[in-house]
Amino acid sequence: MTEFTSHLAPLILEYITYQKASGRWNDTSYGPNLLLFDRYHEAHDPEATCLSQELIDTWCVANEIPKLTIRVDPASMWWLVSSDTAGHVA
What we know:
Elements: H1 9-21, H2 30-44, H3 53-62, E1 68-72, E2 79-83
Antiparallel strand pairs: 1-2
């Protein structure tokens, strides 16, 4: 897989490792989408020190994705993302 370049790169790599270990990774879908998001983040907010809801919203609009909500699980520091239509945090 191509290298991640945003400040989120270490967290993305940890997330991929976690997903693969838990058997929930889909290299065909998740990998390319995370790479595209990483590139978008780097291009649109290169000085950011954290992931913002505003960036998620602009990413969703630009890619015609239903609105997502992010939050960080304080216990694990993993991002939890959910669709407004899902009704729960995945």
